[in-house]
Amino acid sequence: MGLKKVVIFISFFLFLFDGSILTAQAKKTEVFAPFVSRLKAKAGKTEIVLTWKDSQDVKGMNLIYRAKSEITEKNLDKATLIASVKQGIETYRDRPPSTDKYFYAILMKDEKGKVYKILIPFRNKTTIGVAVKSLATEEELATKIKGLEAIPGKDSIRINFTSSNPKRDVLLFRNTSPIRKVEDLLKAVSPVVLGKGKTSYTDYPIPGINYYYAVIDAGLFKIGKVSLVPGENTTVKPVMIPLGEGRPAVLKPQKQRPLPLPYLLITEGVSNGEELLASSPFHLPEKKNLSPATTKAVNELLAKIKLPSKPEMRVEVLKNDREVKSGGEEYTLATIVHENLVKGKYGEAQRLLENFLSIYHSKDVEYRSHFYLGQSYYFQGNYRKAFIEFLMAQDGYYREVQNWIDACYSKLIEGSA
């Protein structure tokens, strides 16, 4: 073999050897990190539409993140996880909480729960912020409830329905008479808040009584724009748990008392722990007429009772709004209160407060807005709507609201609107 051939042979051998070493090193350092591709964010009037192409490397879910700055590995923990979307959908409609510019990113999560935290511009994250022109109204965001049904069991009633927007909270009402008008909700039991994605509920009412149910969007209830459709979001036929001779069917200790109308289940004796027998049915005493002498004595006692006069309700301004602050939602609310409500322009105050509540605000400002909107309704003689608004405000201002709720009760009892 000539020298030239030997040199060529040795060089070719070294090349193969070197290449195998490099390939082995590359395999050792290779990282498996699947990601979606072609992520795009297109802004519309009230929503941002995301589109992408799924990865075929891993089966699982796509985690969608949103932030006000470009999302990187350093600030990923500060981004908001807004949705978890199954593979195969490849689109998502986001309604952001403000008209600011937002950035998006999508990470993959496999069936074992592992999240692949890799971010690549123009692949699975956006580099340019997008913003909506305006925020969606409560009517646009609200879910539509259909197919509401109430199925009685031995000791409970199962509520099932479908929701067009699972992201929305809904309220479940129960009443002993049909729920056909908004006014019927005032007579119903305090609503149960069913969280996002809930489309069923198990109720434990008292047996032997007919019940009707209604499910409505929580946001629409807050702004007083409830629509009741018999057979869709309200039940038409009554349901009842039959009276039984034995003990209640719920035997195991309950961590929480049944809602929305709880009753205490005492099944064992306190002293010895032995099982208690079911109590006899409760009966009211037989009605009897009072004797003339007793009637006269009762009337004399009642004549001596002097009920305190009801205080006249006046516009009440909360401490936080007694001075008009400079800028922001606090300034807007205080301006509406001082320029309209305080000056007796109740109709204008109502209109401005309803518009003010149609967009997102902090919880405290929202409570105060409902408090003032309730007053604007009250002084216009619309006591039913005022009552609902004060209910919406009592979680934040319980003490201040009580006098107004009592005043609404008094007006409604007197037969006012």
List keywords for this structure.
single chain, 417 residues, alpha+beta, Immunoglobulin-like, Serine Threonine Protein Phosphatase 5, Tetratricopeptide repeat, 3 domains, four-stranded antiparallel beta sheet, three-stranded antiparallel beta sheet, 10 helices, 13 strands, 30% helix, disordered N terminus
SSE inventory with pairings:
Blueprint: H1 3-29, E1 37-43, E2 48-53, E3 60-67, E4 80-86, E5 91-94, E6 103-110, E7 115-116, H2 138-141, E8 145-152, E9 157-163, E10 170-175, H3 182-187, E11 192-194, E12 200-203, E13 212-217, H4 218-222, H5 292-304, H6 328-341, H7 346-357, H8 363-378, H9 383-393, H10 398-413
Antiparallel strand pairs: 1-2, 2-5, 3-4, 3-6, 6-7, 8-9, 9-12, 10-11, 10-13
Helix pairs in contact: 6-7, 6-8, 7-8, 8-9, 9-10
Question: Can you walk me through this structure?
Answer:
By secondary structure, this protein is α+β, with helices and mostly antiparallel strands. It folds into 3 domains: 37-116, Immunoglobulins (Immunoglobulin-like); 137-264, Immunoglobulins (Immunoglobulin-like), CATH 2.60.40.10; 319-413, Serine Threonine Protein Phosphatase 5, Tetratricopeptide repeat (Alpha Horseshoe). It is 30% helix and 18% strand. The chain is built from 10 helices and 13 strands. The chain has helices at residues 3-29, 138-141, 182-187, 218-222, 292-304, 328-341, 346-357, 363-378, 383-393, 398-413; strands at 37-43, 48-53, 60-67, 80-86, 91-94, 103-110, 115-116, 145-152, 157-163, 170-175, 192-194, 200-203, 212-217. The strands form 4 sheets. The chain has a 4-stranded antiparallel sheet with strand order 4-3-6-7, with no helix packed on it. Strands 1-2-5 form a 3-stranded antiparallel sheet, with no helix packed on it. The radius of gyration is 32 Å and the shape is globular. Residues 1-29 and 245-259 have low confidence and may be disordered.
